[in-house]
Every structure is written in structure tokens, then in C-alpha cells.
Amino acid sequence: MTDNDDLTPLVPDEDGTLPGDEVPGDDAPLAPEPVATGELARVYAALLARAGETQVELRLDATRRACELLGDIHLAAPAIMLTGTNGKTSTARMVDALLSAHNLRVGRFTSPHLTHVTERISVDGEEVGHATFARVYDEIEPVLALVDQGLADEGRPGLTFFEALTVLALAVFADAPVDAMVLEVGMGGEWDSTNVVDARVCGFTAVGLDHQRFLGDTVAEIAATKAGILNRTVDPTPEPEPLVIIARQPEEDALAVLTEQVTSRGLQGWVEGQGFGVVERTLAVDGQMISLRGIGGDYPDLFLPLHGEHQAHNAATAVALAEAFLTGGDRPLAEDAVGEAFSSLTSPGRLEVLKSEPTVLVDGAHNPAGAAALAQTMDEAFDLTDVTVVLGMFADKDPHGVLEYVHRFADRVIVTQTLSERAMDTDDLAAAAEEWFDADDVTVAATVKDALMRALDLADTAEAAAGERARAGIVVTGSLLTVAEARILMGAEGGL
Questions:
Q1: Element (H, E) at 122
Q2: What are the two backbone dihedrals, phi and then psi, of residue 62, each rounded to the nearest 5 degrees?
């Protein structure tokens, strides 16, 4: 399970492709992309047969058993661990790029995936190959079965999808082998399966309200659960005193809890705005120019090919994490390596432009904080005269919290349902939307495909009406699963 979104993996058809169809557009027909074939489809089906990512087990011992039986794979390489509510995946990708630019072989584990389950596991900045994914799974499957049986004998549920996938990721990294691991926490921290690893550096991106059913009803409670990544779960631990990097926190309660946790444990930590941060940023074509202050040095005039102030702050956090890992914060990174790492960054599904005429972009904002960042970036970086939003959310999310920000940049909204049993009913979502938009500006579409077809028609109409000054846009948001479907239908490359 992931704080980015409760993404239920898309189930491939018998031929291994995701459900979908063609969406007409100005270019070639837009068709779904195969997600899993052959051996990968077999392994993915075996993983999906386990308890899903919404069926969370609050435990570490099950994952630890499997890791220990496989030769302590959770100790195979030093690690950076990231938790938070928003920004984890983008920051993890940046850290990966920074470490790789310093000639380390890096294994990265993130979630959820957009198209291929293999996107969650990367080595050397590349999605793990399907053959390797299947081979390593087959090698560890007897141990997974042994752990399942032991848990059953104790009257406990077997390894979940996410627990098994965590073990698989660590096994891939041990098999490679890698020099460093960058691990994104699935949900929370204290009992998330990734926490079997005692990280050398622990990072906290912005913490807000999400997943209250599991993490607590207040930001302070959620921050305390996330601070559990500071616990040492290995005896004796290879990393007794982790270094801590805390990104800017929009909620004072979250910052108070995190800093208290660092202080009470006697750890060394740095807080954005007090020890590192963004010095300057200006808009640039296809991104922004940023100057950063790290915990070990300054990094002026970096090109970041990602949109949004939040991505600049993610970059500052990533630099601090890499400095802490590589130098303990005592000296700067190689400036040319930092520039090289950032210049080619991508962040699929996060303010990602899929088409330029009309502008079609996707963003996985599924909570108010994510929607606020989206609205700010739309105002800052995209000069659009007419915007249609395609919105599909999960039933356990806050539609009004998202719509409060969507209505600030959108002229209309098309509500739809994702391919998930947990999708919010379109009538319920439309009713919420009509509290923020005029009823005539709220349309219901049964599927993401239908919504995109309607949005493309509206964009054409808007541009025809506005003439030379027209620049119509479509924004697909509300859930990473909604984004995943749109990316497939628009013919985007999967994953990395």
C-alpha cells in the first residue's frame, strides 16, 4: 500500500494487456500498451492472489522472516528510506539519479506502478527486466511459501501483496548486487514492510492527512507513525544512528513531532529552511532553473526539467539526502554530477505532459495537498485559456478537498470512474463537483476513455471559438489509477 495513492493494481487480460480501447485524437490512434506477458503475467498473477494493498497487516516480523531465510537480504546494501504523504516518489527518483551520478549502483523501490508492476523495482535507473523479475521471484517463492505456512500455523494471514513485493525487491537488489538502496515506504513507516531495513539516512517529505483509517486522525498521529522508520529493527543494527532529513512541513504539528522524535533519540538531523533549501528558482522552458543550499554546500543554476515549486523543494530534499548518505553532510556533492543527475529527470504521472496540442497533462493528486500543488503549478507554468479536468477518485478520498483547488484553474470537470472496485461512484463525485462548479460545467462519463474523448472534443471546440489566442488544455487527475489509464490510452510509455 502507498501513501501516494491506494492503487489497486490493474488486472491484465488473458493476453497480458490492461483493459482499455482506442481514443480518437489528432494523431495516430491511441491504444493500450501491454503490461505483462508470459512469465511476468504468471508472476504478477501470483502476487495479486495475495491480500491486496488495502488489506494492511501491522507487522514487520513476517517480512523479516522471509528476508532472514533468504540470507539477510535486507542487509545487502546501505539504504536511504523515504516516508511522507506527498512527494516521496519524485524525491526517490532524484536521490537515485544523484547517487548514480556519483558512480554508485542503485536499487530503487517505489510504489505504486502506473503500467508495469516492474516499474516499482529499478536497478541502475532502469526498470527491472521482466525476465529478471520472474527469475528472482521463482528463486524466492519457496521461502515465501514457507513463511506463509508458518504464519498459517500461528493462525495469522500469509504475506500480503506488498510484503511479498518488498521481499522480491530486496532480493533483486541483493542479486544485482547494488551499492545502495533507495526505499520508498508504502504507508506510514513504523510497521511498513520496508522498515525491516535499518536505513543509514531517513527522509521525511511533507506529512498531511491521508489514510486516517490506518495512521491516525491527526497530522501529529500520522507523523508519529511515519517516524517509526527511525526505529532500529535489526539486532545488532548496521546503522545505529541514522541521519535525518526533514523536508518543509506545511503542518506545524508534523514538524513538531518529527523534530521531537529526532531530538529524543539523540540523532543528527536537518530541517528544510533551517539547514538546507531552495535559494532561488525561475521558470524555464520545459521546467525551471533552481539554486539550492544543501547541508554540505551550495548548488547554483541547476536546470530541473519538472514543473512546480514543490518539485524544487523535492530537489532540495534529495540533495540533502544524498549529501547525508555520501558525505555525512560534511562536504558538498560534485557539482557537475548534481547538474547531470537533474538535467534528465522525469517523474511519470506527476504533472506529466502527454500531448502538446491540445495540452494534455496528468497528475496523480488525490488529496488536498496534492491538489494545491497542482493548482499552484497550473497557474505558474501553464498559460492555458480553457481547461477541462477529467477527475476520477477513490471512494475513501476527500472530493471537496481536491475540488477546492481544481475549481481554481478548471473551466469544467468531467467526472468518471477508474477500473477499480474502490472507485468513487460518478453520481457522488458529480454531486460534489456541482458544489464547486455550475451544473452545466459538470459532466459524467462512465469510463476514463469516454471522459478523454469528451475532453478532446471540448478542447477542439474551445480552440475554435477562441481563435489565434486559444490554448486549450486537459488535466487528468484525482488518482494515480486514473492517471495510469489515461497514460495507456494516450499511448504514453510505461514507467521509466
A1: strand 121-123
A2: -65, -45
- Backbone dihedral angles phi then psi of residue 201, each to the nearest 5 degrees: -130, 130
Grid coordinates belonging to 188: 506510514
Are 31 and 45 contacting, i.e. CB atoms less than 8 angstroms apart? no
User: Three-state SS for 375?
Assistant: helix
Q: Looking at residue 9, what DSSP letter applies?
A: P
Per-residue model confidence (pLDDT) at position 275: 87
How far CA 457 is from CA of 351, 354, 460, 467, 490, in Å, comes to 22, 17, 5, 16, 15
Residue that the C-alpha cell 506463509 belongs to:
148
For residues 34 and 452, give the distance between their C-alpha atoms in angstroms, rounded to a whole number.
Answer: 20
| Global confidence as pTM | 0.88
Helix residue ranges per DSSP H, 114-218: 130-153, 161-175, 212-215
pLDDT tens sequence across 63-96: 999 999 999 999 999 999 999 988 999 999 999 9
Contacts of 377 (CB under 8 A, 6+ apart): 307, 308, 309, 310, 351
Q: Give the CA distances from residue 21 to residues 53, 222, 348, 456, in Å, rounded to whole numbers and listed in that order.
A: 27, 40, 21, 15
Grid coordinates of 469: 489566442
3-state SS assignment for residue 289: strand
CA distance 9 to 22: 21
CB 90 within 8 A of CB 306: yes
- Residue 364 CA neighbour count, 13 Å, CB half: 25
- Compute the residue count for the chain: 496
The owner of cell 548486487 is 177
DSSP tally for the chain: helices H, then strands E: 15, 17
Average pLDDT value for residue range 302-323: 96
Residue position matching grid coordinates 463525485: 429
